[in-house]
Design goal:
3 helices; 2 domains; binds zinc ion
Amino acid sequence: MSNQLRKIRRNGAKKLVKDFRKTMANEIKQKFNMFDRIPEGCMICNTPFDRNSKEMAFSWKVFVKQDEIRLYCPECFEKGEKMVEKLKEMKDGV
Ligand SMILES: [Zn+2]
């Protein structure tokens, strides 16, 4: 009898650990889901983005707009910023 009880208890603990691991895995998956959806390259010049490169991860610009993820390489981002500045200047000039 006691043997059986121990078995049940052991299985219960195993299940708990399994459930816990499952929950953790799901949470991690959800967090990385966004990462998975990052485009493969720059939206403007199509330079491929290397997800394993820490340098790229820090220098490239990622914008999340609702469900859409936009990715720009540093060069295109700089160009874009300059264009925004120019547009501002144009507006101010009017
Ligand atoms: Zn680019």
